[in-house]
Known about the structure:
Blueprint: E1 6-13, E2 25-28, E3 31-36, E4 39-44, E5 50-52, E6 62-67, E7 73-78, E8 84-89, E9 94-99, E10 109-114, E11 120-125, E12 131-136, E13 141-147, E14 155-160, E15 167-172, E16 175-181, E17 186-189, E18 199-205, E19 209-214, E20 219-223, E21 226-231, E22 236-237, E23 244-245, H1 258-261, H2 264-267, E24 285-290, E25 294-299, E26 303-309, E27 320-327, E28 340-345, E29 351-356, E30 361-365, E31 380-381, E32 391-396, E33 402-407, E34 411-416, E35 421-427, E36 432-437, E37 443-448, E38 452-457, E39 462-468, E40 476-478, E41 484-489, E42 492-497, E43 503-508, E44 514-519, E45 525-530, E46 534-539, E47 544-550, E48 556-561, E49 567-572, E50 576-581, E51 586-592, E52 597-602, E53 609-613, E54 617-621, E55 631-635, E56 641-646, E57 652-657, E58 662-668, H3 691-858, H4 864-1062, H5 1067-1165, H6 1173-1186, H7 1190-1233, H8 1241-1251, H9 1254-1260
Antiparallel strand pairs: 1-58, 2-3, 3-4, 4-5, 6-7, 7-8, 8-9, 10-11, 11-12, 12-13, 14-15, 15-16, 16-17, 18-19, 19-20, 20-21, 22-23, 24-25, 25-26, 26-27, 28-29, 29-30, 30-31, 32-33, 33-34, 34-35, 36-37, 37-38, 38-39, 40-41, 41-42, 42-43, 44-45, 45-46, 46-47, 48-49, 49-50, 50-51, 52-53, 53-54, ...
Keywords: Coiled coil, WD repeat
Coiled coil: 694-721, 792-866, 903-937, 1015-1042, 1137-1164
Pfam families: WD40 (PF00400)
Amino acid sequence: MTTYANLHPKYIFGLNSSCKGTNCYFVESNQIIYPAGNTVAILSLDSKSQTFLHGAEKYRGVSALTVSANRVYAAIGQIAEKPEITIFDLKTNKKRKALQVPDQNVSEFVSLAFTSDNLHLGALTGAPDYNFVLWKWDRNRLVTTVKATGGSGPVYEISTSPVDNNVMCAVGNACFRFYRLNESHLKPYGFQRGDAHHFLCHAWYKNDKVIAGTASGTLLLFERGDYRHDIQIKNVKNEITGTLLEKKSYRFKASPTDAGLQSQIVQMKADPFERAVSPYLGTEITAITCCSKGFAVAYGVGNVIVFEEQSTYQSVDDHYKQLYVIRIPHDTSEAEDRVIKTLAISPNEEVIIATTFNCNIYSFSLSTAEIKEPEEMLFELANSSYHFGAILSLDCAIRKSLVVTCGIDKFIRVWNFLTMTQEAAREFAEDIYCVSIHPTGLFVLAGCVDKVRMYTILINDIRELKEWPIRMCKELRFSNGGHLFAVANGNILQTYSTATLENISSMKGHSNKIKRITWTQDDYKVITAGADGAIYEWDIQSCKRTADVVERGIQLISVVVAPDNKTHFAVNANKFIKEIQIYEGMILKELDLGLTPTSIALSRSGKILLAGFSDGTVRAFRQPLTYAGEWSDYRMHNAAITGLHCTYDEIFCVSTAADNSICFWKMTDAEGRVAKLEKDLNYATEILVTKQDLEERQVAINELQQRFGELKLEMDYALKRKDMLYQEEIKELNSKFTTEVARLSTDIAEITKEKEKNTVEYNTYLKEVAQQHKSQIENTEAHFNTKLISEFEKYNALQNLLESTIQEYEDRLIKLEADRSNAIEELIDYFEGKIKDKNSALEQAFNDAQAQMAESDEMKRQIEEDADQEILEMTTNYERKLRHERDMNAKLKGESGIMRKKFQTMQKDIEEQKNEVQRLMTECAKYNNLIKMTEKDVVTLQKALVDKDLAVANKDKHIAELMKTNSDLEKFKFVLEYRIRELRKLLEPKDREIIYLKQQNADMETELESTIFVRNGLQLQVSELKNKLRMTDQERNKEKRLRMRSLVLVERMRNYLTRAMSVVADHRALKHVVKAMYTKYGNATKADKAGSAEQEAICELVRQRNHLEISLTSVKRKLSKDAQFTRSEQLKIMHENLLLVYEINNLRRELKNARDRLNQYETSLGLNQASHATEAAEMRYKLQTAIEDRDDIDIAHENILEMKDNMIHAQQEEIDTLSTKILKVNEYILDTARPTTGMPGPAVDHIKSVLSSNAFQKLSE
């Protein structure tokens, strides 16, 4: 059964570094377009989804990109043998036009630009010509071509004016030119002194202004084609040189760094498998973009400076204000990687996009810039970070939906092919050649320059676990079960255990380096392919070679094994793919691929076979392989494929290339169906997290919670402050409102007077206008009646004339048609007779010629010369006759042409008559329209009268509404006055509360000062302990030296004793030796004894000092406990004070309620004006009967109030005494805590006596 796979691009990571100029644009407010690999991708910033421009992948890459002003069309400069510009419709993502430059040797297109009306497209060609080419692209017509360069260096970009379709601009090294399109020619105008600067970028601002940036960091402003002034950049640090850019003015001075850049920025070409070196020096302005209020500039290394135009300014330096600086975060170790190449602002001016030298895309929300601190003004990745340079290796996990890659940028990145996101990334200090991910997706093997390392994939990091000393390893692979992994150590295959991380075996058989390692699905065997052309199969258990296929002289690229472990597919540098039976040692099939393969991949089921090639093509083969070479090619990369792998579920295919792009393909069968997932195949979601990370995260959470509490308190305080400010504003508004009400009342009075006056004048004027209009209407009706009669008579006359003319022309037309048909018939008869005559003459001449030819044949033998002469004469005669006949035929054709022209002229006359009839009919229609318009004028005049009446009525209504509004304002004034009184009543307790909080704040400040003093004491104690430790170390070293000296003396004395033992028999010699030993070491022993006595004195001194320090620390500890006890007692007092204040407020509230009830009683008794006389009499009677013992109740109430007032005064006095004592205690504690020699006993006793006073006993009770 044959199978066939179709590949559909699903997602691509990467930014094409070969695209010159601006390589990122906004298509919508949340969509950007940029080149990736060999195609152009459109990315949604919200959902992170991608779409592609269909057909862009058919070429060899993208050299330039632009989007029209209305964001409907996109133009792409394609790299090919003959470069081409392709225009796409962004609504349908389909190709519209293809443009080429005829009769010119164009290497590439480096910049493109649409005009503002989207009808013309400008293009800048590459070196060495740098021509400015202009097309009318919708008609595929080349308008003009002009040479854009003005100096020796390159030209970088072109642009068109946003308001004038005929104005263009080009910038480059020693080149800054304005062009105007005039009569299909581009002519330079305006500023012509660009040779003093190295311009890198420019942008149009506010219709006719251009802002240009140079390699020396200068911003130049041009207006209407002329230079105006410089725009200053202030206080931005150069991260390459470390200098700070201050306020400078260049004013047309060439920078010494211009020669260093020259054409490197555009023409920089390097090996795709080596990291590109940045040509920037950190002082360049590399990109500019504009918005409605200002513009943004990319300066130096990762700095975007936002400027705002000022409407009023005193000098040119203040014309544009530098608002803030947005920076690219430090993602890599190389500072040059953060140099910005492109800037773009969204249509709603809320998001700014930046692309960098290391092919990353960043975004920043401009709407949040005002609320962020300067250190928070950082770009964020628009999607995820990409590789910079070639991607060297690729591998897929089995139990998790993860893919791991490594590149020449020294990064290892982990991708998720289900969510299309980047899970983890880390940069290393050394080069990484290959990677392999564990089937569980938790570990990564990496082959580095000097070692092979195993890393652990954590939640947001990649950490080293183990390393092995294997140099320059470029191939390694985990087994399918993950319990083993194989490493290529040159031409030796080494296997390791994942559990013990130890070497299990080493197998040698290749004579050259191993290029590829592949495990069988059961992990019992491993297959290796070497540069020597050999494919070996190794048994893991016996560590022996079980099968091989060797083809010497052929360089193998890669090999894969089928699920049956018998069939192998291999590709080599000779552009062949081979199907091999390794156990039989034979090649079953061999196909010529036509391209140089770089990798090969086979799905888990063996149904899908893929190969990658050096030009970026991915090829899907029909399985099993046929000799016809049935395959399908797909291309999303523009460089060599470096990695190709099918996922375990056979739904996706992943390819990597040397152009830093990673493409995820969705695989389907010939009918477009995706492979069915197995029931037990569920990707794991577990991740590894270290305990330290969890603890750090918990600490961070606690700190954030504490910070949240502090911010909440600060916000509450700020809200209270705002409430106070708002109250003051309310007072001001009330005062303004009262004055405004008074002014409005006076204005209303004046308006009423003026209204009465205007009504009288208007009534008189209305009567006059009515009379005038009545007379005008009568005159108009009489005039138009007479005019209608005359026009109707004219219309009847013209109608009769039209009918007679039509009848006449119809008769003439019939007559002309009859004459034409007769003339044609006569001509046909005449020419047919002529043709018959000529045919008969020709037949007769032919017969005569035949007879003469027969006679000449009979006489040929006798008179050959005479016959030749006669034949020549006859041929000339017949040629003359034939020429004469041809002339006659041409003459007849001319006569027929003349007749045809006459016929055409007659038809033209007929058409002219018809046009005349049509003109008369149009004039008649005009007169009819004129009559209708006159009738409409009459109707409009009548409507005008009605409208004026309605206007008078509306004015009356408006005056009535103003009167009503005035009354409502007076009512609102009364309500506001009442609310003001109520708010004043509410402000009084708030003021008292503020005073209390201020007092509490002062108390807390004093407590903070005491805490600071205690901290200083602790710091002093730490310093003393450090000194003590240093002294102890010195004494220990001294004792060590003394011990060494004693050991040396003992050894020497032992030597003397040994010598003395040798001369024991000789008494004189023994005496001499003993005496010498005494004279030499006796004095030293005394000195040692003296030193030991001195040492003992020092030790005694140290012991006494330690004793004093211990006593001092105990006293300090006791003092701190006492201070803590004092602070707790102070807090208790404050708490009781708050309770007392709360009770006082309750008492005041009860007093207020009592007063309100008293007012109600007075109202009921008729003491107030609000009560009625009858109701008051009834209430008095009821009151007299109800409360006969009123005097007793009043006396009891007054006694209760007096007792509570006495309690309040007593508690207030007690609070005052306690607060004074607390202040005294705090002052005394602070005074006594300052000395470091310890606290004397009387001070402690004094504190205890104060703390044990009656007031504190009462407080504790």
